[in-house]
Amino acid sequence: MRPETLIPLMVLLPLLAAPAIFALPKRLGEVWAWALFIALLNFAVAVAVVVFAYLPAPGSDVSRLAEGGFFLAGAGWPWLEDFGLRVSFGLDAVSLWLVVLTALLMPITILASRSAVTERYREYYMWLLLLEAAMIGTFIATDVIFFYVCFEFTLVPMFFLIGIFGSTQRLKAARVFFLYTFTGSLLTLAGIIYLAYFNAAHGMGDAVAVLSQLRGISEAEALAWLQTQPMYETVGRWTFDIQALTATAQTLMSPSQQGWLLAALLAGFAVKVPLFPVHTWLPLAHTEAPTAGSVILAGVLLKLGTYGLIRFALPMCPEAVVNFAPYIGVLAVIGILYTALVCWVQKDVKRLIAYSSVSHLGFCVLGLFAIDATRHIGQSGAVMYMVNHGLSTGALFLCIGMIYERFHTRELAAMSGLGRVMPVWAFFFVLFCLASVGLPGLNGFIGEFLTLVGAFLATETLGIGYAVAAGCGMILGAIYILYMVGKVVWGPTKLPEAHNHNHGGGGEAGDEGGHEGGADHPPAARRKLDLNAREITVLTPLAALCLFIGLYPFPMLQSLDKPVMTLTRPASEVVAARVEARAEAERDQAEQHLQAIERDVAMQQRQQPSTAMNVAPMGGPSSPPLPPGEGPGVRADSDGARAPTPTPALSPTQREPQRPDFQTMADRGEVGFGRPPVTSPHPNPLPVGEGAGFSEQVAR
Amino acid sequence: MNPMVEKLGGLVPEIILLIGAVACLFLGLMRTAGARRVTPLVAGLALVASILIPSLWHTLAGEGNAAADEQATGIIALLHMGLADTAFATYVKLIVAAIGLMLLLVAVRAPEQLPQTEETESGRAPFDPANTARGEFYAFFLLSLTGVMLCASADSLIWLLLALELTSLPTYIMVVTTRDRAAAQEAAVKYFFLGAMAVAMFLYGFALMYGAAGTVQIYAPAHAPDAPSIHGTISALRMAGEPLPPEMLVGLILAVVGISFKIAAVPMHFYTADVYQGATTPVTAFLAFVPKTAGFVALTILLAAVGWPLPPALAILLWVMAVLTMTVGNVLGLVQNSVKRALAYSSIAHSGYMLIGLIVGMSLVAANGGAGGGGGGGEDGLVLVEITALQNGLAGVLFYLVAYGVGNLAAFGVLACLRSRGEEADTYEDISGLRHRDAPLAAVLLVAMISLIGLPPLVGFIGKLYLFAPAFSTGEVALVWLVVIALLNSAISAVYYLRIAAAAFFGEPEAPIEIAPSAARRTGTTLAGVLTIIFGLFAGAFGLTTLANRAVDLPITLWPQATEQVEDADAEGQ
């Protein structure tokens, strides 16, 4: 079997298993076990893919991952040849880690669902597996419409997971979730079709003409350059191949066309992320969804949005991205701060975590749009953040779900001091909370730190103001999470009234043993309340990964370096061109200034009197810089630089400074940037009673 | 050969259907109960035969091989089966026969379940021809389908008018005879009078067109005895390169507005909800597909006569109609309490989407200069042209007719299978909790809803892609906005489609749901649901999209050949 077949296998396996599981005959054993088996099998396939990723491709001595670009890409199957539609697939490091995350979370959620879902479980596992197929399909697609098909199809299983298995407001939540995200992504579809049309409408002749005009080179040169590009094969034809469309969009589209494309893409992806003004579907959906739904929603589905942004928006419309990055950055920062404040006043733990997702994904978007001329720290950080947020927030939802199974409440006011009753649970909960807050040494820190550094360094698009504001968001994040932890885990022990003796759930009543307990909770009951072996199994891998990535993120970061650079390069080049153009304009102006002065001086020397007055402006400030992007030679310069080196355009000399820079920043961050409220493991920063009162006041 | 005989040669399917209709009429009134019972079977056989016999004849006569050049392999060969003169008509006949067969399966027990028919058929009462609706129902069913097929072959205004009326007149009767409710009578009367008004309107339009062109011939028949001449047809007017005479334009506008009754488009959509609700559900399924297909076929033929890009007045009219139709349909669909009415409004909305394809049409001046337009010619009037599928708005319409046809049929079919409180299922409460009662039907309903929403990977999505992408390929901003409006409309429509799906899956049964004891109806419904999935996943593998693209030879038979002929004529003249 060739390794290429492994990738579609990850989609086909759950896709075909789903109906089989639904129709599984009783005598073949438990549906739950089969679903778990399929999910584990899929995870094994994903691991195999990772192994292949680290092996060199035949006829090459670097690993596939290190080569950058799509690896293990298969031509796939034709779907609609007429339309140029193919089911084609491939992976790069960005999608690889997200696929692994998906394949990892799925068996974990299935394992966690065992006691939570006791009726209509056939449907439940069928929808879960279909969801897995759709999510992995989204990440592996190298055809835009195939991507879109999977992207949209995730809505259907999720609609049913929320609508059937959710809590009280599930119908509303399911409908709001579906309609909100569906509406946004329809506009994305319009953008995709527009782009494909644009590609088809520009024949090779057009491409040559536009290129030669844009770059000020002769048509022969333009043609020669085009022949080195993958788009040479596809321009002027209907195709939905991601690389072909990306090449067309970034080279042939005018800034305003790119702007429209970006708007269309954002319409779908920003809703999915969700970015600040369109985030309102998320708390409802997260809160009402069953535990597994929330885990998948927070862990993977939100990342479809950020993945779309980095896969499509950044490389396809670089000019527009640079133009609009400051505004999108503002939205992201507002999202970070606003939802952090909203988190603070939540009374429902699950809702709190849901809102914290919005806040955290704000960092992600901030990092994605932190376009810098030479570096891509923000984008690498954003991808790290996607994976890490999936791990830690997914785990938090699992923890909350375990509480809900025991007490049937998620009210913050109803529980406190669970740490004494459920020490194992408390251990995991605190760990994941700290990871979510961004404690150095745990995984959340890496992404958060890198995105902030990215925003800080990208002076051309975002800059220090954004970084500082988002940094405040981190502090707020620490406050609300730690406040919640302090209340729930420490503080005087108070178990919810609703605790009604069936904490183990129907499926496991046997190994749970007796259900004594009640108001005074003798030690035996306390031990029973704590996590059982299955639940510990659920949380342990996540905790281990949080720790591992937190302590040793470099393999992952390293693997992300090349693909992220490929995706960011066009936008970086735009920024670089602007910086250069501005510098040149300033130089020109200074020269003109100098010449004028020299002329003046010369004139004055001829007419001796009144010298002093004319020389006065010499020391004055230089005239204001040109507005960005208006420099006359912008495109010509950047493209001139790019033309001879089609693949990684940044020359070694350009890239060299980036490494040490980045490293020292990271080191400095480890040591110097640690934030007191997080690093000091002070268990209970606020007296609980007062804290609750305060939060209620704010809520009012 | 005699031109009349030549013409009839392309109408074999219609002739067979007509014979079938007459046979049904007789069988339905036979004295022996057994003979009466086979009426639906005869109707089904007639539908199958209408496609099979001419194609077999064609193949056996050896004509098929001559036409089948290397491009006409696989499914494309379907268009060379000798069903009609043009690939366009062949395609329409194929889909009408295929979906007609499923409609028949769904409709099978519609006339039999009437109380008076049941009484007669059960043998409790002596046979009374006045008390049974069986014969005329199946006869009219076939006659109406004959009308659609005739529409597709129409090459003159008179023919088109008669074919359209042959499609509609039987439906009035089908509405009234299959349900013993006052609502059905009301629906039929409303349908009939409004329909008559619409006919008057487009007949007046046709008259004006005749006045302007001096002929009723729309395009030259492919089998004209001597060299087919573009001169003396309506399409010759535009050919001259001059603006259309005003009376021609007015005539076209009146015709378009009149025919919009058939497709249930604004401003002639008022009857839709009442009639669809009043008719018995299988008949509603019929109404939602058959007259609509006839309307779109007629509009395509008329618009092809003036060619694309359309004259501005016509384009603006259609643009406004499209926007209003889809918006009115979807917004009113939101507020309905009856599933049938919601689906009626959804059918209005889908007409709005399909109008986009008509506006885009198939411009032979391809957007990128030279990608389309060229092409190899086949013999016997079938011209195969290499035009990119996604530049062909008409192909989008033709494909969407199938996509909408199967999705809509599945939805109405499920409703037709259900009864609640002794009545046909109608409201959301009636289908609430369907999952508990009958999971397979609920699944079919879900598939239909997802397809109608346009969610991938079902056929509805591909249909929408096929309709909307060509609109982009014209490069016109107005059309791009039209697509954006259409996409937002799909989002609105998702609200009520989801409500239907949610009622079936999340709701609790409020009244016991009875399942109609008709295996045929169930089969038809399930078949439609399965096709919705298969056509979505394997549309490419089956070449359905290619088929639709190749089927649009109508404007091409009108244009390039004609252009050549005009040029040839000029050259000879000099």
SS-based class of chain B: mainly alpha
Low-confidence stretches of chain A: 500-520, 611-700
How large a portion of the residues of chain B is in β-strands, by DSSP E? under 5%
- Spatial separation of the terminal alpha carbons of chain A: 63 Å
Largest interface: A-B, 42 and 41 residues
Number of contiguous helices of chain B? 26
User: Average pLDDT across residues of chain B?
Assistant: 82
Strand order of the largest sheet of chain A: 1-2
Mean pLDDT of chain A: 79
Q: Can you count the beta strands of chain B?
A: 3
The total strand number of chain A stands at: 2
Oligomer category: heterodimer
pLDDT < 50 runs, ≥5 residues of chain B: 66-71, 365-386, 559-567
Tell me, what's the shape of chain A? globular
What profile does the largest beta sheet of chain B have?
A: 3 strands, antiparallel
Major pleated sheet of chain A: 2 strands, antiparallel
Please give the domain count of chain A: 2
State the separation between the terminal residues of chain B, measured CA to CA.
31 Å
Structural Rg of chain A: 28 Å
Q: Give me the side-by-side strand order of the main sheet of chain B.
A: 2-1-3
Order of helices and strands of chain B: HHHHHHHHHHHHHHHHHEEHHHHHEHHHH
